[in-house]
Amino acid sequence: MNDGRDLRVSMDDPMQRRTAAPRRLRRAGWLLAGLLAGFGVQAAPSAQAEREIEQLIQTLGRSGCQFERNGSWHDAGQAQAHLRKKLAYLRKRGLADTPELFIERAATRSSLSGQPYRMRCGQAAPIGSAAWLQAQLVQLRKAGASTPPSR
């Protein structure tokens, strides 16, 4: 017995079938939007972030410092090549959107062993690569702020 409270759609009625389809599509649209939001779709890195990451890698290459990776010391050029490979891997996955994320995810420790990377410049004691790169980033940003914009 139906007293008006039964809200189920009868698929035998063509009018009810037509109104049920748009509701299902709206529901599917909301579900898809929720799933995409849940995956954390990220925008591409800004031009400034790309420039700063590239400047960091170039600074490392020109530094003349040594880079310790998994217990072995490498020259700056080898370190630069290694970090470029790691950066390419992260970029494909949208995981290096800022210089800070690049330092954290590519230039701090070995992905294989988990051992921290270190830098040794001249006769100074080795320091963690993250601290060295963060200091370089600060210097790059200060130099950029003091340089008048080009026209």
Plain-language structure description:
By secondary structure, the chain is an alpha+beta fold. The protein has helices at residues 14-38, 47-62, 76-92, 99-106, 129-146; strands spanning 66-69, 72-75, 118-120, 127-128. Strands 2-1-3-4 form a four-stranded antiparallel β-sheet. It starts with 13 loop residues before the first helix and ends in a 5-residue tail after the last helix.
Q: Topology, pairings included?
A:
Blueprint: H1 14-38, H2 47-62, E1 66-69, E2 72-75, H3 76-92, H4 99-106, E3 118-120, E4 127-128, H5 129-146
Give a nutshell description of this structure.
The protein is of the alpha+beta class and 151 residues long.
Coarse morphology: globular
Task: Give the helix proportion (percent range).
Answer: 55-70%
**Biggest sheet: strands side by side, in what order?**
2-1-3-4
Secondary structure tally, helices: 5
Oligomer: single chain
Low-confidence stretches: 32-41
Number of strands: 4
State mean pLDDT (0 to 100 scale): 82
Sketch the major β-sheet: 4 strands, antiparallel
**What proportion of the residues form beta strands (DSSP E)?**
5-15%
Instruction: Name the helix and strand elements from N-terminus to C-terminus, one letter apiece.
Output: HHEEHHEEH
Give the helix/strand class.
Answer: alpha+beta
Distance, first to last CA: 80 Å
Radius of gyration (Å):
27 Å
